[in-house]
Design goal:
By secondary structure, the protein is an alpha/beta fold. The protein is about 45% helix and about 10% strand.
Length: about 300
Amino acid sequence: MMDEFRRANPTDVVNARACVTGKPLSKGGIAGRTEATARGVQFAIQSYLRDTRTQGLDGRRHLKGASVIVQGFGNVGYHAAKFLSEEDGARVNVVADRDGYVANPEGLSIEALKQHQIGTGNILGFEGARPFAGDMTEIEQRCDVLIPAATENAIHAENVERIKPHLVVEAANGPVTFEADKLLRSRGVTILPDLYVNAGGVVVSYFEWVKNLTHIPFGLMERRRRERRNQTIAAALERMTGREFPADIRDEFLERGDEIDLVRSGLEDVMRSTWARIGDLLETQPELGDYRTAAYVASIRQVADTYEAIGI
């Protein structure tokens, strides 16, 4: 698409890269775009758990040991399962895909499962789990977090009564039907809505667009300054304590702030601040009833405020 745009607009060479996002790094893309949607899912769950106004996971404020079911093992489902299990300590007990599902009550090795899928073409037959071909009923078992990351309308009027999570996180677009949404909420199940949860991809695409328009790689203006500042802090701590800075965290502390780190930091900030807006709105207007409605109202208000500010 970028090449076609250049051919059609030969005079617009300067900003041609900004016409489309999701490009390879060598063509003006941005680090972290591939897994951005799943990172957003992770940050959305963390933001919800961090907010003391919510019920958390039956009162818990962390994912360590939490049981997670992921429906869909494409880009978003795979990365979300990987991040939640490897970084947050969750137990991904079930992964379902179009061919069926695999289950392990002790938790699945997500990276090993992905390599099996790449090698065989599906998730069935994985040695670290029990396979169930042509069956999706396992998403109906009790769990802390259910992440529908496949198709729309995965949770509907016919199966909603058998769905038993504390938290539904909509990583796909429209995975819960209108009727199922009402029934889940009537049972006290919290739903984090898709327009918020899976926004990570478009957020990082925005970062890529900004990078292309400014023609400055992320971190270029501050990377060395941050490195020198952290070196100064480390040296000061060593002088004050008379001890060497711990070797196991020294490299991370002195890191330069590469593009991938800045992209993740920016995405996390957007997801956190957006959750705060949604939560604040629902707190001041409880009649809205749920996070989905609050998210829509917050979004529409922001658009309306922007139009009003320019006199439209």
